Amino acid sequence: MTVRSTLASLLASLAALSAGCKQDVLCPSLGACGGGAPVGVNGHTDATWVLAPGHPSCSEDLYVPAVDTRLAMQGGTLTTGMPAPEPAVFDWCVLLVTGPGAGQDIEVAEPRFYYGEGPIGFATLKFGMDGHFSSGITRTGTFILDFPAYCMRAFGAMPGPLDPTDPNSPVVDVCTRLQVPLRQRGVNTGAYQNSVCDANTPELRAQLGLDGAADPNGCLCRFDLDETGGPAGTYVMEPDSTILDFPDSVNSNYPQRTTYCLQGDNLKLTGADGAYLFDQRGLRTLDLVRVCHDNTECASNNCANIDPVKGTGLCQ
Amino acid sequence: MTYRSLAAVGISILLVSSSLSTAAARTSADEDAAPAKKSNGAKGDDGKWDDDAKASDEPAAGADEESAPKSKPAAKAVAVPVDEAGPPPPAPETTAELGPAPERPPVYGKRSDWFMAPYGYARLDMIEDSTQSFEDGIQPNLIQRAGTYRGDHRRTIITARDSRLGLFVGPPEYRGIRSSSQIEFDFYGLTPTDARRHDTVVFAPLRLRLAYLKLETKVVDVVAGQYYDLFGWNGSFYVGTVGYLGVPAEVYHRNPQLRIEKKLHLGQLDVTVAVAAVRPGERDSGLPEGQAGLKLAYNGWTGASMPGFGRPQLQPLSVGVSGLYRAFEVPVFRAEPGSQALKTYGWGVAAQLLLPIIPVKNLKDRGNALTVIGEYTIGTGIADMYTFMDGGSRFPILPNPSNTTPSPIYQSNVDPGLVTFDRTLLNVKTIDWQAVVGNLQYYLPVDGGRLWIEGTYSRIWSDNIKELTPFASWGGIFTKMEYFDANVGLDITPSVVLGLSFQSVAQTFGDVTTPTPIYGAVPALNAATPGGLSVPGTGGDPISARNNRAQLSFALFF
Description:
A: alpha+beta, 4 helices, B: mainly beta, two-stranded antiparallel ribbon, 19 strands, 39% strand
């Protein structure tokens, strides 16, 4: 074996090794077969699409760190010679501070309704004949906020009457007291509903199917996520089975490309070249079906499951 | 560090290099004049200094074994870049009128009785990573996930920073005390946080690796200075790999220390017992770290073993056990802790084995040699022993009950990843780790073992890092890491080596996949939703990420 041949073979091996070893993405492309504009089957009307039953959207399992409130400096200024705070994991209390608040409110500082990556529960897309589109993408799920005993006790929160204005109001624990402002806070945001707080007992953990040790002086609060977003704007059909859309939002108007595959009443969308769909972090693919009012709006001529109230169904 | 500082460091390097060159040239001259003395000074009667060389991951001993052609590279090694330092000054003419060349007198004895040997290697690494997660070595940083930019795109690294330069010095024996010293550098010195990538790689400031003295007496040996940690018997059980040491899960660390060592020669069996007072894991604990170890080596059964991408060494069948104990003392978890402190303790136990399955008697004919190396460690508060590892653990953000601006900051006095505060926020807890490492080295029966293959598997995991991390940060820690590599190498000459390696490392994070929701309706609270509650870190599948690496390396050992 000569040195030259050895070197050549090693370099070739290096190139081969480095060619195909990327980690697999969770959401493979749904295809890019194209198939015309995703408008009405007659080509003259708008079309509305929703997630196909049993065909979930696909989002990558990303980690969205909770915002480090120290780095924002909250109006403070980081000057020369002033070291930036060392990296930290998040607050055990999820920013909640409890204490002797006003009235029945023991919440002094609101928690962050942290949920990491919420799955897409609903998605509605409308492509208009006038080149406009709109989207409604809803993240759903039930999530838990785990408040250790320290967070519930260290700053002065005490058991007390659920309604201080009612002399007959029963005395309840801090978890029940926390539930009141927490529920109201969630409703005010419009995205976090039905907050419920209970003591973090072994029984509750078993009921919820949670691992780990109980913390009876702490609280487990659950809330339903119902957060809708998604851009609207204009779109252009490009020749390579790609939709180029221009969102109208002041927050995000970066042109985005989406590869698509339209087959009959089914529309599959994939972010082009690894892009997230409609600026939804982690969202890679959507598998959609056409919304219909009657059979004529379906390529299959079969509009099924028509809701008697809304008057709409899904093409099958 | 500013550019002016960098320039100062560069000038210092040149001056040191010039000194080394001068010293080496003189040593060479002395060697020419008195080669017998050099031989005596280098090896002594019982070869203890050779043991020192073997204990390092440097090739000096191996190169000697290979009878590398003698040369005087040190005299050439000080070539000054003309574009950076200007033309070199004219060399002084050594004429009879000028007398002898200036020379610093030795501290004692004759200069020719002092053994001084520069050593090291020049190395090039060409690396292709499948993600943008790591610097040169596969350190236990968090691997970027699939679906992120850095997780989906490659990185190419070409660097010579892992080159080494060292100096071994042995004064003449004095009243029965044999002394020696070793100073060694690589080029991974700290760079300014705003340094450009170009500057970091190309300027490559020096980093101190070893700086110690050793006294050998008939009673005990003493090591004082920065040396390999006794915990894990660093230097004696390193795995063979083209990749960078330490591989994930391998104990690989150096520390300033005072070590007392006693070696007993019982026939073919060497028994080494050592204790050391080591730089503490946290200096503000106020206590040095204690390390102790016992090593057995049976010299009647030797094999070939290559530490990292070094030169193979003739190593006996060896077993080592060692431990460490360290203290932590941190302020209470408040912005203004007053004088209140919390204490806890960390410990670790390591067991290692070097087993020549197919033994060899000498390295010149190491073809068909097969050696296995194994390591198991367990401990708590010892993450730093695994080469920069912290698992992603940090202290939590301090609660802000008064809603002050800016937010209060906890002033920690210990490096991250060793201890943290639990959910009560009143107790400081150490983070547990366990690790296993296995390595196989085989020297093919081709031209005396010039062609070799190696493979490594390692795994490290923690059973409490997740429990000690707020759930909102579970995605930022890993609970388990697995690594394997496969390597092939060729000795182009006895001192020039070429290696090719494939390395793969995967991490399992603290968070898990989100359960699949019900489509078509918002799930009501406590409804029987498929997959259960969407609690971060609960109910789904573990999330992991993987980095694959191909590496081509060249090195010339001297």
